[in-house]
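Now for today's protein:

——
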Amino acid sequence: MRNNLVKFFDRGLFLFLCLMLAYATFAIAGAEISFGFAFLFFILKKITQRASWKKIIPWTKLNLPIFCFLAACLISSIISIEPGKSFYALIAKTLEYVIIYFLFVECVGVNKERFNLILILLFVSCGLSVIDGFFQQVHGVDFMRLHPLVNNWLTAGFKYYNDFAAYLILILLPILGAFFYKKIKLPIRFFAILPLTILTAACLALTYSRGAWVGFLVGFVLLFIGIFIYSATPKQRIYLPILIIAFCAIVAFIAPPAMKQRAMSIFQLDSAGRLGKNGLWMQAITLVKYKVFLGQGLGVYRSISNGTYAHNCYLQMLTEIGIVGLLCFLWILGRLFRLGIENFKKSRDSLLLGLLAGIIAFSVHSFFDTNLYSVQLSILFWAILGITSCRLQATSCK
């Protein structure tokens, strides 16, 4: 009886995590409700198992840096200039995102079937968002949320074009990793994954998000180098560079003048109000000076910056939770990346490399925008972090 209940709660947990991922691209309320039910099923599962305190939270190699990050956020909230706002941000946002990571580790783990289902769900959701983006391009509004174009740039089910672009690079690189995954049958790779890759890349271009383009380029270089050195056959090492060069030449030829001009202005950060004496980044650097080590308080940035964001997640983190909190967060990313690369060199698993490349691309884009302060993107980011950790464990067991 108890085992049947555990299985029931475990399946419920998995179901609501899937719903959370599906809703995250267009309905924040749906994603939050799904998270609530997933967390409830997790608690019921642990109670039914009569798990000891040590076994409530699943163990991963990222636990230590994650707990240190939470501790830094807690200390920052205690000494915050606005403790109420900081504790709300800690409980309702930061803690929720960390719980999402552990929920995925708990219910997916090394289960190959569940990992594959999650990956298919992510790809299908991406495909629907891409269709929504092209619908928006033609009709002026998307069909999911009726969001209008912003400066004629795509947003799909997201509020801002930069958010949509951040989502696309987070998923596009795992899609590319799946294309090079040899265990997937060739017809599926060429007639399903390849068209999805091309359409998603086209959608990314039409967001006109320069930071996302830079992030994607960094992630793509990582993916290409890894596959070229460790996974490609001798023939593939010849034609892959040729195909990439040809593709870049075609894109450069067919890209509209506005897109070319946008690409040429990538490093003109002053045009976006980030640099300069009164720029957003300089404002953040000025605010950092007051509390360098532990920060002004989690979630208080807009209160001390006249309602603006830093448009640089790391500078904003530095202001809110100090250098201690920022280093803990970078420790999470650094440790995952190091372990992932070490694992890939042995397993040559392109799915793992694609997930890592997506996280790196998203992290680079976060240097130019507010990705980690978006509820939609944070849910997706920590979910992908959990899924990547599961893949890391699964490939380590082989």
Notes: Residues 1-56 form one domain. The CA atoms of residues 20 and 35 lie 6 Å apart. The chain has a mean pLDDT of 91. The longest helix spans residues 313-347.
